[in-house]
Amino acid sequence: MAVASESSDKSHIQTEIAFRTIGLTKVYETEAGAVHALRGVDIELFKGETTVMLGPSGSGKSTFLNILGGLDRPTAGQVYFQDSELTNFDDAFLTQYRRRHVGFVFQFYNLIPSLTARENVELVTEISERPLSAAAALELVGMGHRVDHFPAELSGGEQQRVAVARAVAKRPDVLLCDEPTGALDSKTGVSVLEAIEQVNRELGTTTVLITHNAGIAAMADRVVSFADGRIADVQINKQKIPAGTLKW
Amino acid sequence: MVNRLKSLNRKLVRDLWHIRGQVLAIAFVIGCGVATVVLSLGTLNSLQETRDAYYERYHFADIFAHMKRAPRSLLGDLSKISGVRRVEGRIVHGVIIDIDGMVEPARAQAVSLPQTTVSNLNGIVIRVGRLPVSGSTDEIVVHEAFAEAHNFTPGDAFWANMNGRRRMLRIVGIALSPEHIYVLGPGDLVPDNRRFGIFWMNHSALEAIYDLKGGFNDVSLTLSRDGRVQEVIAEVDRLIDPYGGIGAIGREDQLSYAFLKSEMDQQETMAKVFPPIFLAVAAFLLNLVIARLVETERQQIGLLKAFGYSDFEVGAHYFKFVAVITAIGIIIGWAGGAWLGRGMTEMYAELFRFPFLYYLIEPKVFIYGAVVSIFAASLGTFTAVRRIVKLAPAVAMVPPPPTTYKVNALERTGFGRTMSQPARMIVRHIIRWPMRSALTVIGISFSGALLVVTLFFLNALDEMTEIFYFDRERQDIVITLTDIHSDTAVKEATYLPSVMRAEGMRHVPVRLTSGTRSERTVIAGIDPENNLSRLLDINHKKIDVPEQGLMVSDKLADMLGATLGDMVRIDVLEGRRPIVTVPITKISRQYVGIGAYMTRSALNKLLKEGPVISSIYLQVDSAREAELFTALKKVPALVGLMIKRVSLESFYTTVREYMDTMIIVYIGFASVIAIGVIYNAARISLSERGRELASLRVLGFTRQEVAFILAGELAVLTWLALPLSGFFGYHLGSLMVDMFDTELFRLPFIIYPSTYGYAALVVLVAAAGSAWVVVRRVSNLDLVAVLKTRE
Ligand SMILES: Nc1ncnc2c1ncn2[C@@H]1O[C@H](COP(=O)(O)OP(=O)(O)OP(=O)(O)O)[C@@H](O)[C@H]1O
Ligand SMILES: [Mg+2]
What we know:
The complex is a heterodimer of chains A (248) and B (791). In chain A, 30% of the residues lie in helices and 27% in strands.
């Protein structure tokens, strides 16, 4: 592969495919008629890579991410995670898959309101095999000083950082982030991205990140553009830059 | 596992605390269901235990027989009957007494005390004072009920007319007896402790007074384990017949035992009818409430699943949630039921004159209440959690389904155009969530229905009282005579002062047998022209007694397994004790009684006696009643005197008071359930719509407008529920009437308008109170906090 030869230090992981989708289709049946969220998506995502997904609102990015994460099922088509076909999994297997391999950061922070920052993280570490400690995970996102606060006592950016800590604390194989910086100012956003980048680097986590901010694409190995439920374009970043130097 | 789910448990505790108001409200709904079980079964249980212990300890006899006079030697013969363990002879005699300050005559029953002091049959329990000293001829021990009614203490005395002589009797002690747990005078329907009492005196004294030296006129027997009641009774009857015996009876026919039993049977029926209805309704409401509560947790369930919590773990979490609420409810129910049950049992112990009280509730009663609640709660949780757990996590997490509101039919009408914007929101919201709205309406209407049925029970009792005391028994006084008298006595009675109308009746104690079944009852011989005491059917129509053959109530026919046209054998239990066979020519449907009826002339003919009567029914001028009483004190043939006014009063202060208290407790439960359900409906609708309402506030709606939307919805749903409450209440009531159709009585099915009114009032007050709480919460809503976190 072309990319493999360019940076030799990553060659050993780049060749391994983390996700492959074939003809992925998702149709929502609603009272007002069928909504075609995905209209046949074929793509390969590689282990250890950071992929950024761009595209207009409603183009199917979240739908795609949810299917990768085993939260939802496609109407048609297949999804492979490493060598297994996710679309063949039953619910119990999908649960195990999410539990072992996937870390989520949602578009809306989705913290449990009745649990503190630390407890929100512990909620996930308690069911993981080799997690970071909740304190370490929060430290990683710069939230070490607010561990005992409830979500309602945190700002939007702080809540999002807790959400990132919660997602990375289990040292997931894949980290799926749906607009993690959507509601944040650039400085906070950058610190969240740095946390994600650090996890990717240190743990070799395959990362998929949805954003509306084209600037963020610079930190990715691969940039996928969605339009109207299809992949419009895939760009490979020859020179990805550290998240810390991003600005918007 | 425990440690692993620490965070989830913490979430559990915090969430429970957060909605503590609702938790408590639901717990009370469960508690009421459980309490009805513990209360009714516990009371019944305790009464039975107490009665059995009392009978056991004080050697309550198994068989009782009365005769004119018998020599002491007969006791030896009686004790030789196989199956008989002990025999005791005594003297029992009716006495007319005259108490200072009482216009009407009072009656008493004198009972001889045994000469030995070893444990006797029907042993008395001295409460105050002592037994008469041996050899005394005027010392007596009086029954506590009679003593209390007259404020008698040892040292007091009264006059008695015994065998034609006036005697002064001195009270030396006050006692209770297992024979008189329920003290009822002959011919009385309810206890009247002022006008009827029991007293005990020395055997030798009564022997002398009634010329029974060396003899007795009453016998009690206990059976050994292999003794068979019917066989022994037959043998006793054979032996006492030459001495003027009037038929031995078993416990079933002993007055106090039978009334106590009927009272307990009534309790048992209530225990069978009320708790299932309460538990079923509570379970149903619980199901609704929990399903909605879990529904509000939809997003959090999706989130937990997204993290990889298994369906089982998520399900278990919500089961725990409900388990805690249920456990609180069960504890409330156990404690409340046990506490109220104790109060109730103590009340009954007073009515029933027990010397002690065993208050104990079998563990199985507690378990039964708990199991049913747990089952109901689990069912509610299971259906709700399963529905959500089945959703893909992504779907569970999306902000509540894209809500498509529509312009509805109501708005298109002219009425719709006059609606304000918030009113429109209420209507659209109700119509947008038809299931949710329907369930709320059904929930509220069932709690209202529960109120209607419990109140209906009071209505039914009032109606029964009315039918019995006013429509059916229209006489003022019933005189029971010592023996049969020629019906010319009726005419004589009309000459007594104040009497306006007099009618005679002939009552005969009998045993009816059809096939293998037999029942003891009384045949009433009624003159067709009688108009004071009338038989009424369940439609309030006068029942005509057939000129030939026997009429029995449908209850009695059931008990005998007999139908129209069947021949029944009549064993007359008095006089020459003839045995005859007659056909059943009519079956009547009445509210009360297992009676048998004939025309008086047919009865007289059947018994081969002349035109005789055994009691006289009088209608009197109440202003001159006192003169009548004075005159009656001198009538020697008088055994019983039933004054309806007094009997009714006594009925209200005894039997009704206890029944009413029990029912009022149930009404209390029903009210608590109504409040719990409505409060929950209001709170859930607040948590479902909190964000939406906060957004409206942000958009510039005033507090009043937002409060109007929330309270308005509750008001609309409540108004819709009211007629349904009546509807469900009516049908539950008719179900209850069927369940209550027991051997003893049948409930009239009548629901007073005030019942619907009261039920509606409770529902409306609960709704207004809940609305107030919820509206206050909306007003104090921290807008920023609500909008900042996604719940
Ligand atoms: N549960 C659902 N029911 C019906 N339609 C849905 C549902 N979820 C998503 N859609 C529709 O599917 C399409 C794709 O949605 P998706 O959330 O994937 O878009 P997106 O690219 O993430 O948009 P955004 O950038 O705004 O988050 C949209 O048209 C959306 O309305
Ligand atoms: Mg999206």
